[in-house]
Design goal:
By secondary structure, the protein is mainly alpha-helical. Helices cover about 30% and strands about 5% of the residues. It has two domains: about 35-400, no CATH class; about 410-480 and about 530-585, no CATH class. A hairpin with a 2-residue loop joins strand 5 and strand 6. The two termini are about 40 Å apart.
Length: about 575
């Protein structure tokens, strides 16, 4: 029997144009699994969430108090690596089996407590660094403490570890606060591949702490993380930096299956990310999930396993700075971090805002900006160089997406969005789950063919070929290859029965294993058998051949005795939900 090629997608590559160079293509083709190295500051160099009371007012002025509340906790390298396999640089979203989802400005605000509604983080990236450090930190650094445009964080710790040495004046405390914030920026929010250096271009933004508190640090952090995720989709890259702690927290709240068994602290007045401080410890080795396990779980995940709006229940307990200007969370704008420009596409994930998901417009991400670096660009003022993007950010209130509220986040597989999405997405990463999905596609298609098409256009050979394909992908085709053969004739030698002497006479022995065992009656398992007649409407079966198209199957009221449900919210069982007719939402 010829082998049938399983097509993981996309069928239409107009959206995912980088598939041939994406890490998922390498994994599909049998390359070794790649677990990324996470680059960030070590635990010994992190302040661990214990903030000196003297510096708290200064951190609040700078808009950094919330993120400073977070302590160091382990990052799951396997979870981050598996999520990168589903990240798409073309759309800045994760492509799951049930639709797109992503990290948005909402997640930055709620999880980290960073301001998102403010001026962008941009300007000149080159200064007279020694003079700048002397003016803002009050100390002249040695030449070996500066590497290019970056400063050693160990030097910062050397002079700013003891707050008692800096409490003699407001100027001293402001310098201490700047050093404290630099450690947060370089160690967690904007960590680079060195793990030990902080870019000094951010120090300029700390000149006036009150002005610093009005800047959109949240959008800059998200821009940097987007860039790191995009770069990491290159299979040859073996490490990732940036705010991976934000990505992990996002995954924990939206996909609880991957969260630690110990729940976060039930405290108020701090961002959600700070509530995991004492709840997180390194899991025991036998409890860790490998990248293969996580990949398979993501491949099998349904939309009911994803929490589209996980933060509502916590809004009342969050500090006000976490829930300011919430409409900005839905702004389709460029995210800016000096030379980095990465677009924010909330219109692709409207279910995360409780709204109806439409077929999104083509994403906006100029390819010539996707790999732009600072190398050889010392004299550029990025506010001027990227003036068009800065202007777009400044008019963000005009770029806010709004849709009708959604009564349910579930989308039927026959909805207009899902039919479009399945044509344009990468459905599976691993082979095992792809085989299972392929069999599901065959069953669905054969059901519709047998139900709707005239017998003359549907042959039993087509049915048996497709059923044979199902057995083949699971390695069970041998059931159809080897007919029954006769068993060998048993030996005709008559052997005498074995006589065992009762060696336990007079004792509670020698009566067999049935002694002292309680007999129970076998209980049958009841299996729910749903109605085989779908509601009237149009259904789309995923093509089971690489060159196939989405064939519509139309049922009229005469074809079925089942009443058509008015909406997804009225459906009571997973089977009924799967058989909802096509609709626009």
């Amino acid at each position: 029997m010829p082998h049938q090629r399983v097509n993981p997608g996309p069928i239409n590559d107009s959206l995912l144009s980088m598939q041939s160079i994406h890490v998922s293509e390498h994994i599909w083709n049998g390359q070794p699994d790649r677990v990324l190295r996470i680059r960030r500051a070590t635990k010994s160099g992190h302040r661990d969430g214990s903030i000196p009371n003297e510096v708290r007012p200064f951190l609040a002025r700078a808009g950094m108090l919330g993120v400073a509340e977070m302590s160091y906790f382990p990052i799951d390298h396997h979870l981050i690596s598996a999520l990168v396999e589903r990240w798409r640089p073309e759309t800045h979203t994760f492509h799951m089996t049930f639709g797109e989802c992503t990290i948005t400005l909402e997640d930055v605000s709620v999880l980290l407590g960073l301001k998102v509604h403010g001026d962008p983080i941009t300007g000149c990236s080159t200064y007279r660094w020694v003079s700048l450090i002397e003016d803002l930190l009050g100390i002249i650094p040695p030449t070996n403490a500066i590497k290019g445009g970056r400063l050693k964080m160990s030097w910062v710790d050397q002079y700013f570890s003891d707050v008692s040495m800096h409490v003699h004046s407001v100027q001293q405390m402001e310098r201490y606060a700047r050093a404290y914030i630099l450690r947060l920026l370089g160690g967690m929010l904007f960590s680079d591949k060195s793990s030990t250096l902080v870019p000094m271009r951010y120090l300029v933004m700390l000149t006036d702490l009150d002005r610093c508190g009005q800047l959109s640090w949240g959008s800059a952090v998200l821009a940097d993380l987007y860039r790191e995720l995009c770069v990491a989709t290159n299979y040859d890259h073996k490490e990732i930096s940036g705010a991976c702690v934000l990505l992990q927290l996002w995954a924990w709240y939206r996909m609880p299956y991957f969260a630690p068994l110990m729940r976060p602290l039930n405290i108020v007045g701090v961002p959600l990310g700070a509530r995991w401080n004492s709840a997180l410890h390194a899991p025991r080795e036998e409890q860790k999930k490998t990248i293969v396990q996580i990949r398979d779980a993501l491949d099998k995940m349904k939309d009911k396993d994803f929490v589209w709006q996980p933060y509502f229940q916590y809004f009342y307990s969050l500090p006000s700075y976490c829930v300011e200007n919430t409409n900005i969370w839905r702004a389709s704008v460029p995210l800016i971090d000096f030379h980095i420009i990465e677009y924010h596409h909330p219109d692709r994930v409207m279910r995360q805002f409780g709204m109806v998901q439409h077929i999104p417009r083509p994403p906006r991400q100029p390819d010539n900006l996707h790999d732009l670096t600072l190398r050889g660009k010392d004299d550029i003022d990025w506010r001027v160089q990227h003036a068009i993007f800065v202007h777009e950010w400044e008019t963000r209130l005009d770029c806010i997406w709004t849709q009708d509220s959604c009564t349910t986040t579930h989308l039927s597989s026959n909805s207009e969005y899902m039919v479009w999405y399945k044509r344009h997405t990468r459905r599976w990463i691993g082979h095992i789950t792809a085989k299972q999905g392929y069999v599901e596609d065959i069953i669905e298609e054969m059901y519709h063919k047998a139900k709707t098409e005239p017998r003359s256009s549907f042959s039993m050979k087509e049915l048996t070929d497709n059923l044979a394909n199902c057995l083949e992908v699971f390695g069970e085709f041998h059931r159809l290859q080897y007919p029954s053969i006769g068993a060998p004739t048993p030996s005709q030698d008559e052997s005498k029965p074995v006589v065992v002497k009762n060696i336990g006479a007079g004792r509670q022995e020698g009566r067999g294993l049935g002694r002292r065992r309680r007999r129970v009656e076998h209980e049958s398992i009841e299996v729910f058998v749903p109605s085989h007649d779908p509601p009237a409407g149009t259904y789309y079966a995923y093509p089971v051949t690489p060159s196939g198209g989405f064939n519509p199957y139309v049922y009229t009221a005469d074809d079925t005795s089942v009443e058509t449900p008015s909406s997804a919210a009225n459906v009571s069982s997973p089977f009924d939900t799967h058989l909802l007719p096509s609709s626009g939402c």
